[in-house]
Design brief:
- It contains six helices and no strands.
- It has 167 residues and is mainly α.
- The chain has a single domain, classed as Four Helix Bundle (Hemerythrin (Met), subunit A), CATH 1.20.120.610.
Length: 167
């Protein structure tokens, strides 16, 4: 038993699963806050010149916030799927570590993609400022694709682990 505990650095399966869920939520939140700040800085400048463009600019500033939501969803799924809320979790160290690993795609990719989506949204605000008819939301939406894909990967991994462990 001591060898098994040392193998997982003394953390229980529940500890690892909560660590993965929490880390994903934290990374997504950091990325979203950072990305919104980047986009909002440019959007605010455009609005200081023409406040009638608020409706067109708000989505550009808000879009990086979706990555935080995706990571929140992953964290909630971990808690629900593996009985962490009810205290009925029977995860071993190995199982918990696998849950931790399943949370990594959404956490790290959303951290990075939210920042780049903020930069893309800031650049797209120039389209709105110049009164061009090009759909400014297209460019940040391209970045969003990868955040969505990372959430899908994490959900599939969690579903596979849940099925494998009969949770």
């Amino acid at each position: 038993m001591i060898v098994k505990d040392l193998l997982w650095w003394g953390m229980s399966g529940t500890d690892w699963a909560l660590f993965g869920a929490g880390l994903a939520a934290i990374l997504g939140g950091i990325g979203s806050a950072w990305g919104i700040t980047i986009a909002s800085s440019t959007v605010s400048g455009v609005l200081s010149e023409d406040d009638t463009k608020f409706g067109k600019l708000l989505p550009l500033a808000a879009m990086p916030g979706t990555q935080g939501i995706y990571c929140f969803i992953a964290a909630v799924l971990v808690v629900i799927f593996f009985g962490l809320l009810s205290g009925t979790s029977t995860l071993t160290g190995q199982m918990g570590f696998q849950v931790f690993l399943a949370c990594q795609p959404v956490g790290w990719l959303c951290l990075v993609s939210a920042v780049y989506q903020g930069k893309t949204g800031a650049a797209a605000a120039g389209i709105v400022a110049a009164d061009k008819q090009a759909p400014a939301l297209i460019f940040p939406a391209l970045v969003e694709t990868y955040a969505v894909l990372s959430l899908i990967v994490t959900i599939l991994m969690l579903l596979g682990l849940r099925a494998a462990y009969g949770a």
